[in-house]
Amino acid sequence: MNMTLKALTLVAGVGLASPALAADLRLSAKINSYSGNRAYAVAYIVDSRGKYVSTIHVAGPKSKYYKHFTRWARLMARSGKGVDGTTGASVGSGSTFSTRIKVPNSMLNAGYKLIIETAVENQFYVADDVIIPLDKAHNGKANAGSRYIKSATISF
Amino acid sequence: MWRSLHSLPGVLSLVLIAAIALSGAALAIYPVQDKLAPEVQSASGLDVAQVTAAVAASGRDIDNMSRSPSGALVLHYFDDTGMPQEDYIDATTGETLSPVAKGPSFYSSLKTFHRSLMLGDKGRWASGAGALILAILALSGLFLMVSRMGGWRHLFDRPKGNWSSRIHTIISRIVLLPLTLSALTGVYIALTDFEYIPVNEAATQAYPESTQDVVPVQISQMAALKAIPLAQLRKVTFPMPGDTTDVFTVKTSGGIFYVDQATGTVLEHVAYTWSETLYEWFYTLHTGVGMAWMGVVLALASLTVPLIGATGVVLWWRRTRGNAQRIASNAPAGRADIVLLVGSEGGATWGFAKSLHRDLRAAGHSVHVAPMNAFRDHYTQAKSVILLASTYGNGSAPSTADKFLSNLALLERVPNWSFAVLGFGDRAFPHYCQFAKDIDADLVGRGWNRLLPASFVNRQSTQAFASWGVELAEALGESFTISHTIDLPRTRHLTLVERTVYGEDLQEPTAVLRFRLDEGQQASLLDRVLGRDGKRPRFAPSDLLGILPPASSVPRFYSVASVASNEEVEICVKRQPGGECSGFLHGLEIGGTIECFVRTNPDFRVAPGRKPIIMISAGTGLAPFMGMVRANDASRDVHLFWGGRTPDADFLYRDVLETCQADGRLRTLTTAFSRVKDRAYVQDKLRQEGERLREMLSQGASVMVCGGDAMARAVSAEIDTILEPIGLNVLQLKTQGAYAEDIF
User: What is the b/e burial string over B216-234, where b = at least 16 CB atoms within 10 angstroms of the residue's CB?
Assistant: First the structure.
């Protein structure tokens, strides 16, 4: 695997764009009811061509499990960028996680998408649990997830 | 100390440990099953280069290819839409065999249950604790067993005692090692899970880069990949497509190799850290993954856990049931005129103490009962102190008496009370009632006034207890009776169908009585379910028939003289003067019925194998041997010694024995008669045949003795003399299981 993935370090904090051209992006997601271990989740942004831009939030403390999100890891490795965004605890059945981050305005209404991947040990790894385009039509609306995510909402 | 670590913790954690053990046993099947899966392929003759080249040729966007411990190859790649996929692939062609099934399965649920009881982090704590407790139980159990068997050298001797104690001992000593291993590795894995023990993953210091500006070598020709046999491969991670600086990362059983994607040579080799290697070792030892036979051993060992636990609970329950606190109206120590001190291990002796307490109180005494360990110099009004003591292991004190002798040493004066010792034991043990004998000798040595010589009760014989009570009453100058009833098994009714009486003219004639089981009780449903009709006959040689004479709850025991049968049983009864049961049986008419039950005698059985057997008996002691001889075949030598009174009146089974001699079921028959001109007892005949017996015993023959107490002792002394020249004695034979006694 690529060196960038090898050098996974948790950077708490945002480091993307200058404040003047940035907007507050809020994300909140609710987990479905299921039986099993607590879920890990990662929320990240890709551009209109599907290339990795940045990670918004990682829910799950142990970095040794991050390599199991193969799609996210592969996209990140191709882009040469490291993990950024906020981190939080893993999420159990029925719980929620949320975060707030500054993103440059150029990301909004430009075909960029927010993707949330989820994984539960001994169960499934879902690379496309929720995909939300970052545009006016989806601002503030709840989007249903395909397996572990019940619904996710973004607002900016 | 070991008992407190073993007994109650074991009982309390039984459910938890059984759950973990059973789920573990089920999980252990999977590595074995894995070996048989279609995806598993032999890796012989293949190297990493071949397989990698085959897979790369398929043109897929590959992330990595991994090899499971059982040998299955899995390809992790991304499909056209960029979604991750996993397929089993063929080792030679790189073609997909089948997609890997994802998602929760019974296996994953089982694993979660085993590791955390499906209760999350708290459950992991419980599971880890369970493993630790199991390790402690195994260790403490080992020390308890050593103590009970009488030393490390005797650890694998035949255990004695009731069936739950035997099963507990036999099974646990077989599975001790694999179970302890599972428990300790389980504790280790739990500790690494919680990260109390760190497992540092091997990593490179600086990520290497592939050579640029060279013509890339074909994957199938890469030297580094060709040098690694497929059997050693764990995972090969492909370089990122389009990134020429990236490398192949090859994880093998010998460490991690970083391979240049252009030149195909090794750029760097990183060995596993020792913590990683250790983890791998313990993981393999615990799960059997990659070592299928280990999985089978662990599974079988784990399956026995509920049985060991259940028998352990039975033993614990038996021990706590006879508790001093349960004895009602116990007089205070300072006020009682009779003090009963109890040394008990399994609780049976407490039962007798309770009955004695009740009967002495009924006779007007005020009685204080306490464990022997509670002995203090505060029995200010006591006139008599009675000590009831069983023996543990090789003659040591039972658990409620282990401090008695040292407490006794603190008493400096000679007390003004008298004492009597009643020992409880089992003649099958070599050191019969040794502790009771030791106490008796110790107290006499201290100058205590002895009321009665020490008496012994064999195998909880309520009869012996009652007759000791008569002696006790006499010694106290009173006239009370004592009795003790043990829970009797369900009784059957048998009908007398035949009777032969020997020695009618003699004062104590002997009758051979044959009984038949009543029609209506041929085989209950329970019997059939338990397979009694087929497997073990209801009445078998060496068994004892416990007969309840009318209006009595104290059973008398007689050896079964017939061959194994489900319908008929034969016993030999000598009429005792004033004997309640023998009188009843002698007076029974044909067609009369008796109420009885069967008690097995597992320590008095014919030794397995083909070595000769020497059977020694007198009087009705011939009974068990009759069944054994009649069931014998000519290939096994049986030498029977029997002592009676006169050949004309008394010779039981004379015809049958002659027949058996003729057809070889009985090799030699030596008789001794005590009321004829050349009077002889059976031990005299043993002396005469001493050389022949010595020869047989030195070659591994076994001895079985059945008869009265005095005869058994005389025989034992005689055999000791016979064995002296070859350096053996009866005690040694008993320990080896080559000398068995059935004494009445």
Answer: ebebbebebbbebebbebe
